[in-house]
Write a structure and sequence with these properties.
Elements lengths: L35 H24 L2 H15 L17 E3 L2 H15 L3 H4 L3 E8 L5 E5 L3 H9 L2 E16 L4 E14 L4 E13 L2 E10 L3 H10 L4
């Protein structure tokens, strides 16, 4: 989020569809004592048996055939496995989160940039904690957050938060919803001074509301700065 304090600015699947291929190897052995006619009879028997089985399957109602296919597909899916990382990795089992959480964080940035702190305050829970890049922690309730955000926002003439990466995740270890946001942030103070910074904002949500923000800031190198300015689209 663009600078949300008077002195320094705080800033807060890769799921691959796996396909399973089965390779079946066929081998035949041929005995010298087996006569051609016996082999032919045996082959004819197997062929007729196969045709009969296929015919019977085709005679089944469509819903039964569909069930059989669905059952087979279900069995072929690999079972979910838990992470084998050591216990000191407290957040180790992740899965894709609710996409609506990413939408909420996007609206939060947009509300800040448009100086709509009143609407922005409705996105937060009853109590929200902010861990800012400068080491300070703020705790606000829904009774104080609007006035605090408005006070912070008055320090800026304009701000521009462009979240070029938003990842919604659910942590199964803690049963928590998170959105990891990388934002390219530019701002101008009321005195006309301009600055910019790259932020990684870690937002935690509960029941569709923001309850925590951990923000880290990064001063980009000249090459990265050039890339951000050229590749990240302006609003």
């Amino acid at each position: 989020m663009a600078k949300v304090c008077p002195y320094r600015k705080p800033r807060t699947h890769f799921f691959h569809n796996l396909e399973i291929f089965k390779v079946i190897n066929f081998s035949t052995t041929e005995g010298s004592s087996i006569k051609f006619n016996k082999m032919f009879k045996r082959f004819s028997f197997y062929l007729l048996t196969g045709i009969f089985a296929v015919s019977c399957n085709n005679d089944k109602p469509a819903d039964q055939q569909s069930t059989a296919v669905d059952s087979s597909a279900t069995k072929s899916q690999p079972a979910a496995t838990e992470s084998t990382l050591p216990s000191f990795v407290l957040f180790r089992n992740w899965e894709q989160g609710d996409p609506e959480n990413s939408q909420l964080i996007l609206k939060t940035y947009q509300a800040w940039d448009s100086d709509s702190t009143g609407g922005m305050s409705t996105y937060f829970g009853d109590t929200t904690r902010f861990d800012l890049p400068d080491g300070r922690r703020f705790t606000m309730t829904n009774n104080t957050i609007e006035s605090t955000l408005r006070k912070w926002r008055k320090n800026y003439k304009q701000t521009s938060n462009i979240p070029f990466s938003l990842i919604s995740l659910h942590n199964k270890d803690m049963d928590q919803q998170w959105v990891i946001a990388w934002t390219w942030n530019k701002w101008q103070y009321v005195d006309g001074t301009k600055d910019s910074m790259l932020y990684c904002d870690n937002w935690r949500l509960k029941d569709g509301k923001i309850v925590y923000l951990n923000s880290t800031e990064n001063r980009p190198s000249k090459l990265l700065l050039k890339t951000l300015n050229n590749k990240v689209p302006a609003k």
